[in-house]
Structures are given as structure tokens and as C-alpha cells.
Specification:
There is one protein chain. The chain is α/β, with parallel strands linked by helices and 207 residues long. It has two domains: 123 residues, Rossmann fold, CATH 3.40.50; 75 residues, Sandwich (Jelly Rolls). The chain contains four helices and 13 strands. The protein has a nine-stranded mixed beta sheet, with helices on both faces. It starts with a strand and ends with a strand. The mean pLDDT is 93.
Length: 207
């Protein structure tokens, strides 16, 4: 089940959210994500949260959480989505606002991988996915002309990039000195191979 989860980070550009909603089979709002759904004219299937950011909604299934909890609202949404059969989850309205929340939201992509679920975090200019190591193929998309690889470990070992403007062969990329941003597809498909290490792959565009 392809699921869209709307977080509650600040957002004013909604075209991409509407497009994602059209592709989704199931839509969940994390607490304040309801205001984004309302702004887009989206009716969610489920709302989950402690509702510390607003009133509890009517006319939709609600799971109310206690404010004192270990998991974030977005993690609770993620776990419930998987419990209900989600095998492909996209997060939107999840990248603005507080940096601690943003970084926590990015970490959910690795959590999804560990659960065997495809995951992506999107905003109006970026698409972020988790790379666990090994070789993965990506399809070039003219809407996202740049590709960046951000190490999650101290080093990525054995990095080989094919089909990109700036190739690498069996390189080591340090988290302290990242040399793998602002690359560009040079072929319809490109591959990112990492012998050891985890990373985020970010497809992006300027305004």
C-alpha cells in the first residue's frame, strides 16, 4: 500500500503535496499535518497525534496519543502505517522548522529500510532516500537535475558512481569532508555503489 504521511513542519508550497496525494492509496496526518491537508483540500484517512498543536479533528479516524511519549508523532504514524500494510511510505511537510525534528524525520528513512518498506522524504525542491550500501540504480529525472550523497557513517568506503557527470571509482568519502554533492545525471540511468557505509541520496532542484 502506497502511503503518504503529512508531517507538521512549516510549509507554504503545496503543489508537490497535491501531486503526492494523487498517487497515494492511503493518507495519514501527523497531528499538525491536518492544517496542510486542509490547505491542499486533502481528506486524510487517519490522523495521529497528541494534538498539542491544535484541536482534535472531527469526521476522520483519529488515534490520540499522550503528550508524554518516547516516539515522535511521525514515528507513531510510521509504525501504524506499517501495521496497516504500507510497503511504500512518502513523507511530506517534514523538512522545515526545527532542525532536530528534520534530522529525526530523515532518520525514519533508515528505519523504513530495516522494516523492508520503501521510503522517501519530499519537499518542493528535494527527494531524499536511504542508501544502505551495495549497488543501487536510479533513473534520471529532469525535474531534479542534481544528485547529492550524504554519508551517515564516518566514511563511505568503495564508492563508485557511474552515469553521473562526476564519476568516482572505489573512492572513500568522509562525512567530515563531503565531495559527493551537486553531481548531475549524465545518462538515463545511473548507479551508486558503496562497499561499506550508509548514506542519504538527495535528488534536488533550485527554485
Amino acid at each position: 500500500m502506497k502511503t503518504l504521511i503529512l508531517a507538521s513542519a512549516p510549509e507554504t508550497e503545496y503543489d508537490y503535496v497535491r501531486q503526492l496525494a494523487q498517487q497515494a492509496e492511503y493518507i495519514i496526518c501527523a497531528d499538525g499535518g491536518m492544517r496542510h491537508a486542509a490547505a491542499c483540500g486533502i481528506q486524510p484517512d487517519l490522523v495521529i497525534g497528541d494534538f498539542d498543536s491544535g484541536t482534535r479533528p472531527d469526521g476522520v479516524e483519529v488515534i490520540a496519543l499522550k503528550p508524554e511519549k518516547d516516539d515522535s508523532d511521525l514515528m507513531c504514524c510510521t509504525k501504524e502505517a506499517i501495521r496497516r500494510g504500507a510497503d511504500d511510505i512518502t513523507y511530506a511537510c517534514a523538512s522545515g522548522g526545527r532542525i532536530d525534528h528534520f534530522l529525526c524525520n530523515l532518520s525514519l528513512l533508515e528505519y523504513l529500510h530495516g522494516c523492508g518498506v520503501r521510503g522517501m522524504l519530499c519537499d518542493s525542491r528535494n527527494r531524499v532516500t536511504f542508501h544502505p550500501g551495495g549497488e543501487l540504480q536510479y533513473w534520471a529525472n529532469a525535474a531534479y537535475p542534481y544528485v547529492g550523497i550524504i554519508p551517515l557513517d564516518a566514511e563511505l568506503v568503495g564508492v563508485t558512481l557511474r552515469g553521473l557527470k562526476y564519476p568516482l571509482t572505489d573512492a572513500t568519502v568522509s562525512r567530515a569532508q563531503i565531495i559527493t554533492i551537486s553531481n548531475e545525471p549524465a545518462a538515463p540511468a545511473y548507479t551508486i555503489s558503496v562497499r561499506k557505509g550508509r548514506s542519504l541520496v538527495i535528488e534536488s532542484k533550485d527554485r
